[in-house]
Design a protein that fits this description.
The protein is mainly alpha-helical and 74 residues long. The protein is built from 4 helices and 2 strands; from the N terminus they run αααβαβ. Strands 1-2 form a two-stranded parallel ribbon. Helix 2 crosses helix 3.
Length: 74
């Protein structure tokens, strides 16, 4: 089971923090939403690429307007 999970993750693309994400981060910071540093960067990447973010952290990331989040653990 673990081998399959690791192999599945090997084919997923890595998404970098780029100029578009930096712009989205600046916009988030201007809204003064209280998020941890890395949560802000992750949210900015997802927003800039119009991605759905898989997370269990609804309490914090749910504060971000326009961020689409899903929790597959429920």
């Amino acid at each position: 089971m673990m081998v399959r999970l690791v192999n599945d993750f090997k084919v997923l693309p890595l998404v970098s923090f780029d100029a578009d994400a930096a712009t989205a981060l600046s916009q988030l910071q201007a809204k003064r939403i209280q998020l941890a540093r890395m949560d802000s960067r992750i949210a900015a990447i997802a927003l800039s690429r119009k991605l759905v973010l898989l997370t269990r952290n609804h309490r914090d990331l749910g504060k971000v307007p326009g961020l689409l989040i899903e929790d597959w653990t429920v």
